[in-house]
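Box 3.1 A note on notation
Throughout this textbook, protein chains are presented in two layers. The first layer is the amino acid sequence; the second is a token string describing backbone geometry. Keep the layers aligned when reading.
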Amino acid sequence: MKKTIKLLDLDCAHCAAKIEDAAKKIDGVTDASVNFLAQKMVLEADDSRIDAVVEEVVKLVKKIEPDVTVKM
């Protein structure tokens, strides 16, 4: 299942790359890509775990870049 997550106030391309790399390591994630210019992440994960994966991604984003607002 694909899920698009908005990352408002993402102002660092390096931070976007760190978020993308870390998200790909989460159990259940099949793919993740962060588009810095569009300020969004496209996340692909197992259908049965999508809610738990999204919750982990939100925590991850706040840890890496606390000023970013995550919107679904």
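The beta strands are 2-8, 29-35, 40-45, 69-71. The CA atoms of residues 26 and 56 lie 8 Å apart.
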